[in-house]
């Protein structure tokens, strides 16, 4: 069976400039002087700079007038100058500080006097505390509402990257099912998945790969041991890859051998719950309504109620993009209205303590007319990838 991943272009510097203009307009509307971005995926989202966190303050200031200033230690100047201002990363003035100087004072001095500063919600606590000392806590504002509102709605380019990433992972999961053999260790399966992701153009899979056999599938995030696969074990594999920083995250659950009647019954309930969650995703509806649809169905069958077991122990889904888990979430209490461009996982897992767990996870995005699957859900328990359909 041949496979060809959908083509997707990387995010262009023009799109990043458009994102910065949108952020700048929102900063102006809220009366804020600038946004401080740390070495997080929000820095990558706006500027294209992929900078790993350390104990030093690094990042960028996006000003309400649209200017971008990078902030880094003086010894990193040449590195940052070499990776910004190209086809994929935004150019900007680079503010530097020496080791004995305060980076917080440097940032404070770059913000207009008395202006308030929004701060990336994913920065380390020491950054917030340092800025509070330098300019006063009363001038700091949580930047999350601005960032989440913008990053939560994906562009057509972002959706194309997500489509490519998820198509690759679904094919890797299909190949893995055919490769499994009795006695194989979970660690060996993870190595196989990582190699297959790389073969198909993903950025590996070992960084995120959950492989569970038997009753370890009862644990939503898997067991701790390196378990060997046995005949008639339940198999749960939850994995993903990256394409230009955008995540896939897909789960398949099936049996290596003959499923029991009880497992078939629960698997069918899981598949129906996933389908009902998808159907409930409507433009303008609250995110929590998707969780309600899956959870009410399962409660009606005798699971739960709420998060009790046997039943669904966690939210029905999460946002996804540059972070594997992003806001908003498909969970009780999240009243964010669904809008076109939002992307979510759909994974209302069922756990039967001491026996097995079943998670079927696919993702969808919201179009102007409703939800669209990134990947087609499991076809059936005996033919999870629809190869015999």
UniProtKB/TrEMBL annotation:
<keyword id="KW-0378">Hydrolase</keyword>
<feature type="domain" description="Creatinase N-terminal">
    <location>
        <begin position="19"/>
        <end position="152"/>
    </location>
</feature>
<protein>
    <submittedName>
        <fullName>Xaa-Pro peptidase family protein</fullName>
    </submittedName>
</protein>
<dbReference type="InterPro" id="IPR036005">
    <property type="entry name" value="Creatinase/aminopeptidase-like"/>
</dbReference>
<keyword id="KW-0479">Metal-binding</keyword>
<dbReference type="InterPro" id="IPR001131">
    <property type="entry name" value="Peptidase_M24B_aminopep-P_CS"/>
</dbReference>
<dbReference type="InterPro" id="IPR050659">
    <property type="entry name" value="Peptidase_M24B"/>
</dbReference>
<dbReference type="InterPro" id="IPR029149">
    <property type="entry name" value="Creatin/AminoP/Spt16_N"/>
</dbReference>
<feature type="domain" description="Peptidase M24">
    <location>
        <begin position="162"/>
        <end position="367"/>
    </location>
</feature>
<dbReference type="Pfam" id="PF01321">
    <property type="entry name" value="Creatinase_N"/>
</dbReference>
<dbReference type="InterPro" id="IPR000587">
    <property type="entry name" value="Creatinase_N"/>
</dbReference>
<keyword id="KW-0482">Metalloprotease</keyword>
<dbReference type="InterPro" id="IPR000994">
    <property type="entry name" value="Pept_M24"/>
</dbReference>
<dbReference type="InterPro" id="IPR001714">
    <property type="entry name" value="Pept_M24_MAP"/>
</dbReference>
<keyword id="KW-0645">Protease</keyword>
<dbReference type="Pfam" id="PF00557">
    <property type="entry name" value="Peptidase_M24"/>
</dbReference>
